[in-house]
Specification:
Number of domains: 1
CATH topology: Endonuclease III, domain 1
Largest sheet: none
Bound molecules: iron/sulfur cluster
CATH architecture: Orthogonal Bundle
Structural class: mainly alpha
CATH class: Mainly Alpha
Distance between the termini: 6 Å
């Protein structure tokens, strides 16, 4: 089946090209949530030192929930996008008040965390609880759109076909590892501009460079 083929090729590439980041050494949902909040619209390399400083200052959710918002903002403001500072505080308080400080494993409940949304809930679900979830951000959506020749435009990560194909791709025994592989692949190879198709292990059948005949997902 084609999803198996794609995963196999992605893992082959990932084995030699994976990027090592501090949040890839943990399955703690608190740390994954913090990392994903920071990674939103920000390059991973820029996030590393802010993430490490944040985790040192706020090592667990109870400490973060009690923290002063202005102090939190002082750490996160290095990333720009000041609006996201409130996510850290609100999410921590929400988990304490609604789940006794324990992250729920249910994807629907994870989505209810303030600031989390589909992608962060999907990342926690796959990486921390090993549960497949349709993880889609703009990068994953772009890869699926190109590979399957869907030719969708606009905010494609919300399109039904993209979400369905992502769900099939992540229906796998180690969805967290797959997420890291796709994140790196879409950052380094299937880039937004000038994708490196010559170096891509999927180039032989990718519709982006082989014409419009749609691939049938069985
Ligand atoms: S061949 Fe090019 S467009 Fe297709 S998946 Fe690879 S990098 Fe992306």
């Amino acid at each position: 089946m084609i999803e198996k083929y794609i995963r196999r090729k992605l893992f082959l590439w990932y084995k030699k090209n994976y990027r090592d980041f501090p949040w890839r050494h943990t399955k703690d949902p608190y740390r994954i949530m913090i990392a994903e909040f920071m990674l939103h619209r920000t390059k991973a390399e820029q996030v590393v030192h802010v993430y490490l400083e944040f985790i040192e200052k706020y090592p667990d959710i109870e400490i973060l929930a009690r923290a002063n918002f202005k102090d939190i903002k002082k750490v996160t403001e290095h990333l720009g996008l000041h609006w996201r500072a409130k996510h850290f505080s609100e999410a921590a308080k929400y988990i304490i008040e609604n789940h006794n400080g324990e992250f729920p494993e249910d994807y629907g409940k994870l989505r209810e965390i303030p600031g989390a949304g589909e992608y962060v809930a999907g990342a926690i679900s796959t990486v921390c609880f090993n549960k497949p979830a349709p993880v889609v951000d703009s990068n994953i959506a772009r890869f699926i759109n190109r590979y399957f020749g869907l030719n969708l435009s606009g905010e494609i990560r919300r399109k039904k076909k993209i979400v369905e194909l992502s769900a099939k791709l992540f229906e796998y025994k180690n969805p967290g590892k797959l997420l890291f592989a796709i994140v790196d692949f879409t950052s380094l190879i299937c880039k937004p501009v000038k994708p490196l198709c010559d170096k891509c292990l999927l180039k032989n059948e990718c519709r982006y460079i082989n014409g419009p005949s749609p691939i049938i997902w069985s």
